[in-house]
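Ticket #4471: structure output looks truncated?

Reporter: J.K.
Steps to reproduce: submitted the chain below (232 residues) through the standard prediction queue, then opened the result file.
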Amino acid sequence: MLIRPLFDRESSTFTYLIIDEPTRQAALIDPVREQLERDLTLIQELNAKLRYVLETHVHADHVTSAEALAQRTGAVTCASELGAACAQRHLKDGDALVLGATVIRTLATPGHTRDSLSFHVPPHLFTGDALLVRATGRTDFQEGDAASLYDSITNKLFALPDETLVWPGHDYQGHALSSIGEERRYNRRIAGKSREEFVALMRDLRLFPPKLIRVAVPANLGCGRGAIVNER
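Returned output as attached by the reporter:
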């Protein structure tokens, strides 16, 4: 399996291209609308066939290119059954997506938003905004819930083997990769904390709302269909 991480500087968003090498079937996780041509060019250069566009959740900080990718490539858009109704396939915990010999397992990891998903392709784990490198996603909008996020991380993600590689949905400190073992030991927000301590910490973060939230959320509920892309 081939993994290509791609980065959007404006939103600090990681997009991931996963390719099953024998068949060249591919999936793209969390694409950004402004990077549409970059992503399509890479897919063509690597002689891949895009089968799935996967969303880890309805994003508040960038607009997805899911619908545009589906129109250009014939790929199937996929999102949580609790998320964007526009998706062609709705996923729940335990669902599998098959790319040749590569199987992508869906893990429901609510908390950042109620529809948050992670995608597991052992030994790789794509965590969206649930688990970040030495941090976690925020929980103060879109039906976020700190207690649910604590449970998702500690009961589901931290239950995976230490050597599982963590590919985050965002990074703001220059980190691109971690592991479950590292995050279980060193994650500053959750490592060694009780559920109550984590909830209190998240309640006191007092973060500014994402600057694109009023544009991005409605657009992403429509899979990026007809979105304005020059709001940055």
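Triage note (M.O.): checked the attachment and the full token line is present. The longest strand covers residues 13-20.
Status: closed, working as intended.
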